[in-house]
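Predict structure. Chain length: 111.
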Amino acid sequence: MQTRIDNIIATLDKHKAESIEAFDLSDKNYFVDFAIIASSLGLKHTTALLDHLKNELKPAETFNYVDESGDWVVIDLGDILIHIMTPEYRVKYDMETFLSELGAGQDGDTL
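Prediction complete.
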């Protein structure tokens, strides 16, 4: 699992995603084992990051579902959720607080 998380983070980092954080939720009552949150530089960058993830992680990863809104992309890999948001959406929805309230803390990687 850690190798998969590291690959996702490395791909996001290589393509200029900012404030990348990984949350280990494996011992929590949540529907995924990990959540990764990253900030994009804007709408086009959000979509570009999704494309980079698809190109660099397939076929090793199965993209079960992708929800794109421009400002926020959610990628469901089954046991990992990836959230890519514009900085404005990241502040507005504050996923870090939500995940911390699950008791996850911020024990994951922060870049």
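Summary: The longest helix spans residues 43-57.
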